[in-house]
Amino acid sequence: MAQPEHHDHDTRHVSPNVKLGLTLFGVYLLLYLGFMGIAAFKYDLFGTSAPGGVNLAIAYGMGLIIAALVLSLVYMVFAKPD
Amino acid sequence: MLYPASSLSLIIFCVFVGAVLALSFWLGRKAQSAKGYFAAHGQVGWFVNGIAFAGDYLSAASFLGICGMIAFFGYDGFLYSIGYLAGWIVALFVIAEPIKRLGKYTFADALDAQFHSRGIKLAAAISTLIVSLFYLIPQMVGAGALIKPLLGLEHHWGVIMVGVVVVLIVVTAGMVSTTWVQFIKGSLLVIFCTILVGLILSRGLAVKPPSEPQAVVKKDGQTLINGKPQSLENDLKPVGRVLALPPGPDGKPRTETGPLGPIEYLRTLEGSTIETYSKRVSADGTTTTYAPAPKSGLDLLTPGASPTFASVRQEGLAGKLNFLSLMLALFCGTAALPHILIRYYTVKDAAAARKSTVVGIASIGFFYVLTLYLGLGAMTSGQLDPTDSNMAAPLLAKSFNPVLFAIISAIAFTTVLGTVSGLILAASGAVAHDLMTNVFKINLDDHGKVRAGKIASVVVGVIAILLGIAFKGFNVTFLVGWAFNIAASANLPAIVMLLFWRGTTRQGITWSIVIGLVTSLAWIMLSTDAYQNLYGYSAKDAAAKALAPFNQPGIVTIPLSFIVLVVVSLLSKGHRKSKTELDAHAAATAGSAE
Q: Nearest CB to A65: which of B101, B358, B368?
C-alpha cells in the first residue's frame, strides 16, 4: 500500500476535515449521552410511547443507528479533498 | 439439548465453506508480495471495500451473540448493537483522519511513530495479545455453538475443528483475509439475514399454550432430563413462545396476527405476553431447572430485562453504573481495536476511504437493525435451546428451512474462520515482530521471523482452543464486550492524547496502556460475572465473593487511563521531543519509506 502523504506531522494542527469530524462527533456524542442520561436519571421515559407507536427505548436505539449513518453521509459530502 | 445430524445440511455446509476457503487461497496466493497485496487493495472500489468493512467487523459474536441475548433477554442484547455501531463514529470522526496524517495505519505503529520506545512497543504488543485473546474466545465459542446443531457434535469438537483448520491455514498458506473474501462474506451475511427477517415478518406472531418446567440432573456421569436418561426421544423441549397477543385492529382478541410490517411487529410484540425462561441451579450444582417466566413485551423491549443489567431499573445512580459503563466501553472500544483502523486505508484516496466507511457504517447499521428482528423472532419461535443462547439464530433458521439453516451456519462459520485467522495473525505478529524483534532485540533473518510467527500461531491457536472449550455456554457478545472494555481502557486514551495533546510523552503512553490493561483485566476477573460464569459459583456466592462493585469496568478504567497518561506526561515532560525534532524525524521516516 502506498504510504498516504501527510502534510503536517504535528497532528495538533487542526485541518478542516479534522474540525468537521470533531464537530459531527460532538453532535453524536450529545445524542448518545442523551440515551445514557435517560437510563441514569429518567428511566421511566423508556417505556413511554414514541412516534410509530413503539416505545422510546426502541425509537431512540433505532434513531442512534440512523443518526450514525446520516452523520457519516454529512461527513462524506462536506469533507474537503486533501 | 441433543441434535441429530442432517446429511443435507452437512453437504451444503461443506460445499459452502470449501468454496470460500478455495477462494481465499486463490486470492491470497495471487498477492504474494506486500506490494501485490496492497496494489490489489488500491484497485478495489469504495463500495466493495465498504461491504468488506462489514464482513470484517461483523463476527459471529455479532450474529450469534446479539441475537441470542435478544432472544433470551430482549432489549439488553440490542444495547450491544447500538454500542458497537456507535464506536464507528469515534473511529471515523476522531481517530481516522488525524492518524492518517501521522503516516501510520495501526494503533501500535502510530503510538511509536514519534518515540521509538521499547516500553511503548512492549506495552502495545501485550495489549494487542490480550485484546486479541479476549476477542478470540467468543469466536471459538461461537464455532462450537454452530457445529452442534449442524453435525450433532458436542461443543468442544466445533472449537477443535475451527482451531485446527485455522492454524493449518495460517501456518501453511498464510491466509490473508482479502477484501474480496470479506466482501463476499459481508454481502451473504446481510442478504441471508434479510431473507430470514422477511420470513419472520411474514410468519407473524401466534399464541401457543404455556409450557412446563424442565429439570436437568447431571450426576455420576449421567444426564437425566425430567427424571429419565437424556436421549433424542427424551430431551429438553425447545422453548420461547407468545402466550397472549394484544387485540387486533378490529379490537377483537386473536391467537395469530398473520404477516406483519416491521414497525407493526415491534408494536404487537410490545403489547404481547411472552414466555421467557428462568434458570435455577440447586445448592449442590447437580440439578438445573428451567422454569417458564411470562413477561410483558413492553418489559422485554426496555433496558434491564436481563440479570446483567437489571440494576438499571433501580432508583439511584449506583445501580445504573454497570449499564453506563458498558455503553461507554462499547462507544470507545471500536476505535481502540488494533485490527480495525487498518481497513480505512485500503483504498486509493481519502475520498474513497470516506465513501467506503459510509457504506460500511450503513451495512453494519442495517445488519444491527436486522439482529433486533432475528432475536425477537427467535424469542417467539418456540425453537430456543434453554441451555445455550448462542444457538438462537441457527435454530431460528432451522425452524424455517434446513437449507437456509445450513447456508447461514456456513456463512457464520466462514466468518469465524476469517476473524479467528486474522486475530491469530495479529497476535502472532505481536509476538514474533513486536516482542521478539523490537523489544527483546532477538536478531532473526526473514526465514527465522516467519518460523517464529508460525510457532507463535500454533501456540496462540492451542490457547484459543482451550479457552473456547472452557468458556462454553458463555454468551459470545458478552465476551466481546469484555474485549471492548480492555481495548478502550488500554488503547484509546493513548491514541487520542497522542493525536490531540502535544504534552504526551512516551512514559505517559506506556503507563497509560499498562494501567488501563491491568485495571480492566483485574476488574473483569474479580467481577460477579466471572465468579458465577467462569469460576462456577452460585449467583449468591458470586455476588458475595466478587471484589468489583459492578461488572463492566469501563466507566472507571477508561478515565483512569486518561488521568494516568496526563499525570505521567506532565511529570516526564522534560523528555518530550520539540517540534523541530518531530519534523526532523518525520522527514527521516518519509525518506526511509520510499
A: B368
Q: What does pTM read for this prediction?
A: 0.85
B358 belongs to a structural domain: yes
Asked if residues A81 and B351 have their Cβ atoms less than 8 Å apart, the reply is yes
Q: Which of residues B298, B320, B342 is at a domain's end?
A: B320
Give the pLDDT score at A82.
Answer: 64
Instruction: Report, as an integer, the average pLDDT of B454-462.
Output: 84
Tell whether B26 is covered by a domain.
Answer: no
Could you tell me how far CA B434 lies from the centroid of its own chain? 25
- Which residue among B320, B344, B372 closes a domain? B320
Nearest of A26, A60, A11, A6 to residue B111 by alpha carbon: A11
Among A18, A65, A66, which would you mutate to test the B interface (most chain B Cβ atoms within 10 Å of its Cβ)? A65
Q: Are residues B281 and B334 in the same domain?
A: no
Question: Measured between CA atoms, how close is A80 to chain B, in angstroms?
Answer: 9
Same domain, B548 and B400: yes
Task: Choose the weakest-confidence range: A42-56, B149-163, B553-567.
Answer: B149-163
Query: Chain A closest CA to B85's CA: distance in Å?
Result: 7
> Which chain A residues are within 8 Å of B345, Cβ to Cβ?
1, 4
CB–CB contacts below 8 A, A to B: 165
Nearest by CB to A25, which of B94, B345, B357?
A: B94
ipTM (interface predicted TM): 0.85
B34 domain residue, yes or no: no
Is B80 in the same domain as B118?
yes
B79, B94, B346 member nearest A1 (Cβ): B346
Domain limits for position B261: 214-320
pLDDT at position B190 over 80: yes
CA distance B383 to B393: 10
B27 assigned to some structural domain: no
Cβ atoms B126, B510 nearer than 8 A? no
The confidence band for B267, taking pLDDT boundaries of 50, 70 and 90, is very high
pLDDT by residue (tens digit) across B318-361? 778 888 998 999 999 988 887 776 666 666 677 777 788 888 89
Q: Tell me the DSSP string of B442-503.
A: ----HHHHHHHHHHHHHHHHHHHHHHHHHTTTS-HHHHHHHHHHHHHHHTHHHHHHHHH-TT
